[in-house]
Known about the structure:
The protein contains four helices and no strands. The longest helix is centred in the last third of the chain and has 77 residues, at about 85-164. It is mainly α. It has one domain (about 1-164).
Amino acid sequence: MRYIFILFSIAFFTFLVYPKQEEIKLKDSMQDLSSVYYKNGLEYASNGEFDLAKEEFKKSIELNKFNIDAQSALKILEKLEKKEIEPNYVNVLFTNLLLKLEIKRISSELNNIKEDFLNVKKDIEVLSKNINSAKEDLENKNLNLRSKVDSLKDDVDYIKNRIR
């Protein structure tokens, strides 16, 4: 009975859980790629290359239909095509969006660096405690050795005095 349970558990994981994990990884990678296309679109649009930007935003939406930023950007480009807004305004808008995205990325990197620093700080504190503990152990062992050496000297002196 126990073996049947183990086999059932393995089958359950293999056929139900593992594929879901792979599906999640695939969705995450598609969203990451969607973000790359969105960023590329922002770069093209901020340089006035609106046709290339439009294609990148469309690719972004194909990969992630919930990418509201790419959808909004595409609507702005459509308004530009209809001459409802000025090209200079669109350049500035997309440049600002690109800068905002870059600030968000840098902020995230700084937070990661901060976390790494705090972890290193904790590691240093632990190492410092371990070093102090080892130092105390060595000092205690040194005292014990000195005591034993002194005791041996006393024993040697005692033996010398008895021989005379």
